[in-house]
Specification:
- It contains 2 helices and 8 strands; from the N terminus they run E-E-E-E-H-E-E-E-H-E.
- The chain is an alpha+beta fold.
- A hairpin with a 4-residue loop joins strand 5 and strand 6.
- The protein is globular, with a radius of gyration of 14 Å.
């Protein structure tokens, strides 16, 4: 019997001194020109925190111990092609200075005050960040 499956992703909130690191998407066909936290798909057989640590290294060049990542929000959302479960994790400790490591997928990287986010932010990412800041651990998003 075929069972329904979700796509699963991790989103990493790198936070320091009241600011969050965001990257601006480019050349992806998904909200190009908009900012979001580093993110990516979970590979099969890969735990959530290990996936987040891997994505942080791949996208922005910082090394995070999986135990230093805390799941702060989970989102069930309706995507264009598939339903998704998105995990949002916070890291306040890492090694290395963040830099754009995926020049083919992002054209800017920067620190933004948590109380002054860019207008051009990926809507689901902005929603999740606002939910996290409000203390909500779960949301359903973009259901038609």
């Amino acid at each position: 019997m075929d069972r329904f499956t979700f796509l699963a992703t991790v989103n990493i909130f790198l936070i320091k001194a009241g600011k969050i690191l965001l990257i601006r998407r480019a050349n992806t066909g998904f909200f190009d020109g908009s900012y979001e936290a580093p993110a990516g798909h979970i590979d099969g057989g890969e735990p959530v925190r290990k996936a987040a640590a891997r994505e942080a290294l791949e996208e922005v060049g910082v090394s995070i111990e999986p135990d230093d990542l805390k799941v702060v929000h989970v989102m069930h959302r309706y995507g264009e092609k598939a339903e998704r479960i998105e995990f949002f994790l916070v890291a306040e400790k890492w090694e290395g200075e963040p830099e754009n490591r995926e020049l083919d997928k992002a054209d800017d990287i920067g620190w933004f005050a948590l109380d002054s986010l860019p207008e051009n932010m990926v809507p689901k990412s902005k929603h999740a960040l606002e939910q996290y800041l409000a203390g909500s651990i779960f949301s359903e998003y973009d259901w038609k």
